[in-house]
Specification:
- The protein is of the alpha+beta class.
- It is about 25% helix and about 35% strand.
- It has 2 helices and 6 strands, in the order H-E-E-H-E-E-E-E.
- The radius of gyration is 21 Å and the shape is globular.
Length: about 140
């Protein structure tokens, strides 16, 4: 019985390790390989309620807005890889006189937390494809 138990234990471990080996990625496809951008993306939309000095870098396209309680949630994209979008958006906040209270950049996402012009909030960036970064901006009254 001991050999049988040991054999089942080893087989179970092999099956378990094989299931989680690639975390949903196909072989040869890493997080850095984003691929070419394809398909149409919505154009810019008029976003009401933005603070007067709110920074919007030239490559940022804002195309949707909704409310969640007192917060305004803005969706859009940045016409550059996250490696370029992050420092450029950070510089735009600094140039507009906003304080950056926290920031973090990883390979496939980044966050900039800000305060200024009577608001606080954050910009979340997600690597979407080569040359485009998805944006989600949350603005709250201070």
């Amino acid at each position: 019985m001991t050999k049988r138990f040991f054999a089942l234990l080893v087989m179970g471990m092999l099956v378990f390790s094989a299931c989680g080996a690639n975390d949903g990625e196909t072989e040869g496809e890493g997080t850095a390989a984003r691929g070419e951008c394809s398909g149409e993306v919505p154009g810019a939309a008029d976003i009401p309620g933005l603070p007067e000095n709110f920074p919007i870098p030239g490559e940022a396209v804002l195309n949707a807005s909704s409310e969640a309680g007192p917060s305004q949630i803005i969706e859009g994209y940045f016409e550059a890889d996250i490696e370029n979008a992050f420092p450029e958006y950070k510089e735009a906040f600094e140039s507009a006189g906003y304080d950056i209270t926290k920031d973090e950049q990883e390979e496939d996402d980044a966050e900039i937390f800000f305060a200024g012009d009577g608001t606080t909030g954050q910009v979340n960036m997600f690597a979407e494809c080569d040359g485009r970064t998805k944006l989600r901006i949350t603005i709250r009254p201070d």
